[in-house]
Amino acid sequence: MSAGATAHPADGPSLAVRVLIAIGLVVLAGAVTLLVVALLVGPTAFHRHLDAAGVELDGATLDHVNDGFQWAMATAIAAGVTAATAVAVAVATFVARRVSRPVSQAAAAATRLADGDYAARVAEPGVGPELGGLSRAINRLADRLETSEAHREALLTDIAHELRTPLSAVEATVEAIADGVLPADEETLTALRAQTQRLLSLTRDLAALSRSDEHAFRVDRRPLDLAAVARSAVAAHAARYAAGGVTLALEVPATPCPAHGDAGRVGEVVDQLLDNALRQCRPGDTVTVRARTAAGGPGEGAEIAVADTGAGFPPELAEQLFERFYRLAPASSGGSGVGLTIARALVEAQGGTLSAASAGPGRGAVLTLRLPDDRPG
Ligand SMILES: Nc1ncnc2c1ncn2[C@@H]1O[C@H](COP(=O)(O)OP(=O)(O)O)[C@@H](O)[C@H]1O
Ligand SMILES: [Mg+2]
Q1: Can you tell me which atom of ligand 1 is nearest the CA of 306?
Q2: Are 226 and 304 in contact (CB under 8 A)?
Q3: Burial of 283: CB neighbours in 10 Å, binned 0-12, 13-18, 19+
Q4: Ligand 1, CB cutoff 6 Å, lining residues
Q5: CATH of segment(s) 155-213
Q6: pTM for this structure?
Q7: Residue 1: is its pLDDT beyond 60?
Q8: What pLDDT, in 10s, does the model give residues 25-71?
Q9: How remote is the CA of residue 261 from the centroid of ligand 1, in Å?
Q10: Which residue puts its alpha carbon closest to atom 1 of ligand 1?
Q11: Distance from C-alpha of 226 to C-alpha of 343, rounded to nearest angstrom
Q12: Where in the chain is the domain with CATH 1.10.287.130?
């Protein structure tokens, strides 16, 4: 038995022994049947044959011939059964080896995975779809475990890094106050509060991020009108935009833009897009929220695009914006860089897509949310 496939008392005999027993029983049943049939049918058939040939035998000769016939039959059956047993042992050994080796290897790999060795993989056994399926399933499981472990390590590093910046700032400020270098006045406390608030919003983002990593968002998909979603998002952000001197424009068709999704969740995503756009704009810039039915016509779903004339980004970075903790200008952005990560996870949980595009730095950006219009589920 190979490593990992350690035997357990409840397991009983090995596969090889079981296959041998099964084939042995078949051989035994065959031999017994053969013997019974031979003893019942053989002599009658033999004598009928002698009668038909006109052979007349007296008592002593008949006994002799009968003995000879039975001995010949017994020898033939014994030889046949011996040969069949030998073949059975060979076949049982061969089949058991072919079958049990991949199974033991699969068990060994699963044991290594359970022990935290995510590099364990099983070779393709090449003995039929069942065992092939088993080893592919184990390899897929190993891939998943390996990726999620790498993901977890990277996440912990990112989180430690994100926590360190505001915490060091708080630590430095508190120390300076204690040393009498900084006065504990309004200005210092405001700066401190800004750091603690950053920590608080980071913990909120982390909670949302862990839900998005687990794909654990609860979305309630229903028919909805993206034109109406765009309209209410613009209304909700109008005051903030006005305060920032940024124009917020709405472009929606007169007819509804039907799609399937969770209106509350779509609203959260558009809020995130409008929040980002405002931070990338300077006074005098414009952000336009457009809703429209997707290019394929009704039934293809609909989209909302948030287009700004702000900072933009190099086009090749478009996908990176959706990576967690990614910020183009970390110092000035004020966010933790998980807004778009969460937004995309939310949209994908509804069967939609969220993408970003820009003609380049200083040339604005467009973030597009697309939702299908199929039935939920
Ligand atoms: N409309 C936009 N124009 C240019 N860059 C953007 C825009 N929206 C997002 N980004 C970039 O993507 C980064 C990630 O955005 P996000 O995940 O929402 O994080 P955060 O807003 O916390 O920085 C931002 O820091 C910014 O650099
Ligand atoms: Mg953001």
Answers
A1: 1
A2: yes
A3: exposed
A4: 272, 276-277, 280, 308, 310-313, 321, 326-329, 333, 335-341, 365, 367
A5: 1.10.287.130
A6: 0.62
A7: no
A8: 888 888 888 888 888 888 788 888 888 888 877 888 888 888 888 88
A9: 24
A10: 277
A11: 16
A12: 155-213
